[in-house]
Amino acid sequence: MTDIHLLSASDLVARYRRGTLSPVEATTAALDRIEARNEAVNAYVLVDRDGALKEAEKSAARWSKCKPKGLLDGVPLSIKEHIDVKGWPSRYGSPVVPASHKAKQDAPVTARLREAGGIILGKTATPEFCWKGVTDSALYGVTRNPWDPDKTPGGSSGGAGAACALGMGALHVGTDAGGSVRIPAAFCGVFGLKPTQYRVPGDPASVSSLLSQAGPLTRTVEDGALMLSVMARPDDRDPTALTSDGADYRVGLGDGVEGLRIGFWDGTRLIDFDPEVSAALAGAAEVFRGLGAVVEPADPGFDNQLATFLAFWQPMTARYLEGASEKALEQSDPMLVRSARKGAEQPIVRHYQAMADRGALIERMAAFHRRYDLLLAPVTPVPPFTAGRGIYGPEGDAYRRTWTPFTFPFNITGQPAASVPCGFTAAGLPVGLQIVGPWRAEALVLRAARAFESVRPFAMPE
């Protein structure tokens, strides 16, 4: 039998329904896995063992009466550190936020998962204010890759990605404002989805809501679809969220990709690639051809969108650090402080120019999707690199040009985009394939991801 800690959420619920497994057993297995493996990877920064077991006992009682609370009743899961869980600290990985700062209520995504019966194990690591594509901070230390602890799991949802791959819970909440779900999914060899902008209700006070979306990190595509079905339910605290139609994203998941027209962008026009990553991506495109899709080379035609992205992102970081004392700033990531200072100095006209650039990019991608149902693209052009390594040269923020030019454009456009594991390097490090769809087409992105998974099952580390 598969180890309990590696069972999918869908498998867990099916076993609860049959009475062959208890939520207490599943939650205990996840907590034991955290205890056994977390020290090596530093995925969790807070674990509530007693609280999780109490909730598991309540879930077991509901299942014994055949009255589950919701789709996720008894499923162990994690929440990214900066997302509010009532009564728990939300420090955003930053010494700027005092340890005494505790959430007065659940964030919308936390509330939806809890209402569905999910059991919250704890919180996972993020870099300071989720600001970069690796996961380390002065507050929580360095988070490491589950396939090789010398490597990074990516970021900013690196704790969630590492926890997911190692079976420290079945479902994991990440957020993605520039690649922060998709990069950890690619580097950790799991499934991750950034939904359409505004699909998942958030805290309307969030300064990153223009770019950021909460999304699932899971070990199967079906679990990602299940989790999104719950996360996307409405919350009146966020009136900007897309009107929910109560969709169950598992419906039609197995319909395949036969006859779909899919563009494959190898990305080499923008940047140099690790040859093993290029080979894995090309192989993935061939898999889709074998599944009956019409796949052809297709460059969406935009250049590196870093300047537009930073015109949004740097003022956001300025807002994060606004009012912080010089003493606190001395403890913060110096490159975050540099970004914030640039953002504070940015003229307002630059923001409006970025909005115009965003509109043009949205129009370009809308035209692309009139011809192609989906876009296949890299997540990153490189495999996971050394954890905790300084990743900046004299160019500062321009480092993003070297390994993240394929994720943040789709935060600018707001399109749904997923990462699926598509192979490994000779050193045993995962490679991710990005599947991008038009606005509101999460169901199609999930369907394509499931088709790929059906012939290339995802492997997990020991």
Summary keywords:
alpha/beta; eleven-stranded mixed beta sheet; two-stranded antiparallel sheet; 38% helix; Amidase signature (AS) enzymes; globular; 15 helices
Q: Give the helix level as a range of percent.
A: 25-40%
Strand order of the largest sheet: 1-3-2-6-8-7-12-13-11-9-10
Structure summary, number of beta strands: 13
Mean pLDDT across every amino acid position: 94
Helix-strand string = HHEHEHEEEHEHEEHEHEHHHHEHHEEH
The CATH homologous superfamily: Amidase signature (AS) domain
Q: How many discrete structural domains?
A: 1
What can be said about the biggest beta sheet?
11 strands, mixed
From the 3D coordinates, which CATH architecture would you assign?
Answer: Alpha-Beta Complex
Distance between the termini: 15 Å
Gist?
The protein is of the alpha/beta class and 462 residues long. The chain is 38% helix and 14% strand.
What does this structure look like?
This protein has 15 helices and 13 strands. The protein has 462 residues and is of the alpha/beta class. The protein has a single domain, classed as Alpha-Beta Complex (Amidase signature (AS) enzymes). Strands 1-3-2-6-8-7-12-13-11-9-10 form an eleven-stranded mixed β-sheet, with helices on both faces. Strands 4-5 form a two-stranded antiparallel ribbon. Helix 7 (221-231) runs antiparallel to helix 15 (442-455), helix 9 packs across helix 11 (334-345) and helix 9 crosses helix 12 (348-371). The radius of gyration is 21 Å and the shape is globular. The two termini are 15 Å apart. Residues 393-400 have low confidence and may be disordered.
